[in-house]
Amino acid sequence: MKSNAQTRHRVSTNGKQVTTLNNNNMKSSPASGQWGRAWRVDIWTFFGCLFVLFVCPILPLTFYTSCTHHECSLVDTAYSLWSGTLDFALPAVSGFAVRTYYTWIAFQILLSALPDIVHFILPRYVGGIQPGAVTPSGRVNRYNINGLQAWLITHILWAANAFYFKLFSPSIVFNNMGAFMVLANITGYCLATFCYIKGRLFPTHENDCKISGNFLYDYLMGVEFNPRIGCWFDFKLFFNGRPGIVAWSIINLSFASRQYETFGHVTDSMILLNFLQAIYVIDFFWNETWYLKTMDICHDHFGFYLAWGDLAWLPIMYTLQGFYLASHPVELGILKSSLILLLGLVGYVIFRSANSQKDKFRKKKDKCKIWGKSPEYIECSYTSSDGVRHQSTLLVSGWWGVARHFNYTGDLLGSLSYCLCCGGGHILPYFYIVFMTVLLVHRLYRDEHRCKCKYGEYWTLYVQRVPWRLIPGLY
Ligand code: NDP
């Protein structure tokens, strides 16, 4: 498709090419402040809402039941369901599980309230009070970035207990998985309901709320953009990062402990999985300020999708491989381990370097180098709902010139490597790569719709310059 806008190329002082548009010829100018989630709900979106609200919560329970009663065989589970012989009971929730779960959440809230000290000790780490992106109403929130500190304190305490204090078993998560899953679901629904009511009755920033009029859609996708309690307790930052992502590496360690207790050793596949996923988790906290510029913070409102997703879906479904390996040990051997490690590292390097290129470029513009050269980019502008016009840029160099979402491609390669750790015995652990593909492809369309609304013809120009979404030459 050819853009109707006239483009001009000029060369800046340092010799790089900058693309600008002749605004007088723009067919459609970017809508002001309209780039958040949808205002109108069509029938397909409505069915999508029903699916996420009523089908997705069944999946973690199904997978748990499959592993506890059907040897992790989804085929056997499906056959039992079909033939009416499914051995199923909702996991019992003990008082101990309730106390442990809510102590965990309270402990993470406490850690999130502490001032960050780590950025004084590690000079290259960006922590402390940091600004987020411009919201659709033109506001810039400030965040207390201390996730790495919270992760470190939690893991130091975890190790101290496992090797010294021995107050509780390191396999505590595996041993209480069913109860924690029930509690996480209840808490996820309660949080989503609270946020819906808060968004309707006492939002933190009224100008950044969206109400489509369709209850199910608003409940699922959220009303408030950045709900907060007080100045610093930010729902999005807290619930996505901690307790969910801090828990990820703790849960994996618990699964490794369980394998050790049951089989007397930890397999190479379990070590590899713990290592690869720990890289991803530590990377998230090391780059927590970068997270402030991702879609979760810049696009999504806080509803069931994020609340339940962070509390119930993430800690259960993202850790499925470890849960599987805890009871189905797999020895990969040196060759397979090396190939999976290589795949995981290549995926991680693409994921991280693509995200860092954009981050570095947005901060330093012409002053940075991408793959040793001055960056090429498209200069663009957009208008927030307060009517203020802002300048922005779309990078065309590096990975952002290879495909428009090559950071997702790297993420998918990494996700595949986690699944491959589980060998070929069952399909259950491969659910993660299927889910990530659906999530990121859907996200890609949502992001492109948002960017088109925000940047108008500037985005069309970028699509012309970089025609591939995920895989050059293919898609
Ligand atoms: P991106 O980090 O790709 O951010 C998208 C935004 O970047 C756009 O909305 C736009 O925002 C800006 N942008 C787009 N193209 C360009 C360009 N060429 N130059 C400069 N800026 C551009 O997407 P996400 O937030 O979805 O994902 C971040 C990372 O998190 C990804 O690597 C993804 O794989 C990962 N992820 C992982 C998940 C998981 O569950 N493991 C879930 C979701 C994401 P604007 O211009 O408004 O600033």
Secondary structure category: alpha+beta
| Total number of strands | 8
> Biggest sheet, in brief?
4 strands, mixed
Distance, first to last CA: 16 Å
Mean of all residue-level pLDDT scores: 88
Could you list the spans in which at least 5 consecutive residues all have pLDDT below 50?
Answer: 1-15, 23-31
Q: What portion of the residues fall into strands of 2 or more residues?
A: 5-15%
Helix content: 55-70%
Shape descriptor reads: globular
User: Which ligands appear in the coordinates?
Assistant: NADPH dihydro-nicotinamide-adenine-dinucleotide phosphate
Pattern of helices and strands: EEHHHHHEEHHHHEEHHHHHHHEEHHHH
Rg calculated over all Cα atoms: 23 Å
Oligomer: single chain
Describe the structure.
- The protein has 20 helices and 8 strands.
- With 475 residues, the chain is of the alpha+beta class.
- The radius of gyration is 23 Å and the shape is globular.
- Helix 18 packs antiparallel against helix 19 and helix 19 crosses helix 20.
- The longest helix has 32 residues.
- Strands 1-2-7-8 form a 4-stranded mixed β-sheet. Strands 3-4 form a two-stranded antiparallel ribbon.
- The two termini are 16 Å apart.
- The structure holds NADPH dihydro-nicotinamide-adenine-dinucleotide phosphate.
- NADPH dihydro-nicotinamide-adenine-dinucleotide phosphate binds next to helix 13, helix 16, strand 8, helix 18 and helix 19.
